[in-house]
């Protein structure tokens, strides 16, 4: 082996060795998150900001105790003195919406080392409306258009927006126990849903929303000015439009009670259609059995596909969150 070739190999070996050791030479930034489900979400968000000088380690608040939740994350951050090497990554919940009305809200909004989702929770972002057709396709390997799920979610959002404003109004005051998030969620639950008549679900929802609004207006006869002022603030200053309200309601409720039941029905329809197609096109029984077995092993669980959905990177809340990360690093 000539000397030049030998030197070249040695140089490449050292470069590779340095890359393998590079993590220990970079600054570690600990990112505390609320739960196991949050680890992948925040890893996805933070990875693009790693470079030759820093890397992130996303973890729960404590290795020693099974602590989870926003309160645990924020308390852990305060106790250990947050800074450039330690950040908190949390769901916004209503704390961003109420704009400092509580101590937790003030800490989340004002502490530069606390990053939050802007959307209520990661579940809302996993259900990002423009991506839901693709989720169904990934789940069933059938790209047929069943219903316009994106438009349905937008119509759902428009229907609940007036009541959502009332909900935020109550949570910005000391009267939040008089109209709770639980009551709000019970009203905006879809209940029955039919693929043949999706508009019937929206119509029924509007009636329930109108019933609650009439009740709240009777209880608050002088609140019109406050209500309109908050509505204007939500739309014009905070960027929450009627069409995107679904991103700011309770995440688990929206995921479990609205989106998942709809997608289950869509995916079941698509799977049955694909299986009928296989039954129809199979030349003989052995081919039919093999094709059905192959297809059934290929389909996925829609809930898991939703949890792995990362199309939210194009959403408004994540664009705002990325701006916060850029400012911090």
Characterize the structure shown.
The protein has 329 residues and is an alpha/beta fold. Helices cover 60% and strands 6% of the residues. It has helices at residues 3-25, 36-46, 70-79, 103-110, 122-126, 132-140, 149-171, 181-188, 198-219, 224-237, 251-281, 285-298, 302-307, 316-328; strands at 27-33, 54-59, 86-90, 114-116. The protein has a four-stranded parallel sheet, sandwiched between helices. Helix 6 packs across helix 11, helix 7 (149-171) packs parallel to helix 9 (198-219) and helix 7 (149-171) crosses helix 10 (224-237). The mean pLDDT is 90.
Descriptors:
single chain, 329 residues, alpha/beta, 4-stranded parallel sheet, 4 strands
SSE layout:
Layout lengths: L2 H23 L1 E7 L2 H11 L7 E6 L10 H10 L6 E5 L12 H8 L3 E3 L5 H5 L5 H9 L8 H23 L9 H8 L9 H22 L4 H14 L13 H31 L3 H14 L3 H6 L8 H13 L1
Parallel strand pairs: 1-2, 1-3, 3-4
Helix pairs in contact: 6-11, 7-9, 7-10, 11-12
Structure described in brief:
The protein is an alpha/beta fold and 329 residues long.
Task: Please state the overall shape, judged from the principal axes of the Cα atoms.
Answer: flat
Please count the beta strands (DSSP E, at least 2 residues each). 4
Estimate the strand proportion: 5-15%
Radius of gyration: 25 Å
Give the low-confidence spans: none
Q: How does the helix and strand content classify structurally?
A: alpha/beta
Distance between the termini: 47 Å
| Average pLDDT, all residues | 90
> Main β-sheet, in a few words?
4 strands, parallel
Tally of helical segments: 14
SSE ordering = HEHEHEHEHHHHHHHHHH
Helix amount, in percent?
A: 55-70%
Strand order across the biggest sheet? 2-1-3-4
